[in-house]
Amino acid sequence: MSRSWVDAILAAGVVPASHVPEASVGRVDLEEFTGADPVEDPELRVRSLVGAPALAPPSVGFLDGIEQWRVVGYAGVTPIVRAHVAAAIRLREGDRRLRTVAENADELAITRLDRLPDAVRGALAGTGVRVVEIPADDAGQPARALPAARLEVQKARAALERRLAERRLARLGSDEWLVVDGVLSDSPALSAHPRAVGVVKSHGAEYFEGPELERALTLPVLHRTSVFRPKRRGARREIYSWYLRLWPWEGNDLLYGLLRVEARAHPGTVALAPRISAWLVGERAPLATPDRRWDRLLYPIYDVESYLRARAPRDLLPAPGSRLPRTGT
Known about the structure:
The protein is α+β, with helices and mostly antiparallel strands. The protein has one domain. The chain is 28% helix and 28% strand. Mean pLDDT is 90; it is low at 23-30.
């Protein structure tokens, strides 16, 4: 579909724009304090991985997704956003090479239809592009409309990743694991599967306070916390979780090299937590550079992102030049 629907709305009178908002760099996970229940220890403890044998699955799939979006035009003050979301699973087997076994992508227009002129609504309908609407309360002010559009992009990406992961679960071999970039608890199938692992790089959700929070955030390198059960929020499913430090944080930042791991809520998860942790530490290499999140980004996940970005629309990337007006001189 590419730019065909954008050309149609511009022909219908939309004022063109070309702007990637600062907020479009990735997902956020900001939540209030939710709390957690102890599972492995009576309270959160620090456990060393020294001497822990690493789990070595002969077959592992790694899933991640990307989102790209930009404002392509305005109808009055109502923005119209073009978004691209994509997800893929790359499988690693005995030869250690990653190959794509599943992928999907979607393009969508994000706006508020009742704020658009009839001609623009008709142009959108005629192209067949999927239109996602922002809430009416956010549509009147661009300062609110763009964050609302970003949230819809994130929802579309998460839904695409979830569908791809759940379809893959039905095809997993008896010795195959699936590592998901993000939470498992949004999916009943993922959160209950014995060989699914979620790797969370963002730490907006808060599960501890006081001394337990300090233990979690000052975790030494090559250590993990004991396993805990995050208290359920809304429709999220029950899972077990623990923190894992990939690189030393001293001299950097408290969150440097810090992951939170999710797996199914089952006694077997507690028994496997040391081996899963040692396995994930091994996935640090090779380094996921030049990505600025390399300290928390497992290399196979970085590989999936690189694969998807190489196939994404180039016109959705931020323009390298200045946004100063052209003077003609």
